[in-house]
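Tokenised fold entry reproduced for everyone:
>
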Amino acid sequence: MNKNLKNKITLGLGLLTIVFLIFSIVSCQDAANQRKLVDQEKQMRIELEKKASELARLNKDLEQKMNQLQETLNQEISKLKGELEKTTGLKEKLEESLQKTLVPQGEELDSSPE
């Protein structure tokens, strides 16, 4: 009977060893899967950070270009305002000159029929 009990204990311990071995293998697989997911997440974060920094750089470049264009536009507006003022001044001078020229002729016309 002693030998029979040893065989049962050996068989039970063997089965427990197999069960624990299976649990260990499953646990290692789960750990490997978790590590794989963490690595994928890290890679995705790195890629997103690269894209974010690239977009920030692009945004900065576009803002600089926009500021340059705004400055150029303001300069052109100033030039056009200056040209408009010159043109308005010339127009006024021409109108005065025309009035001076027309008024004496009008006086001559008025005095001729009398």
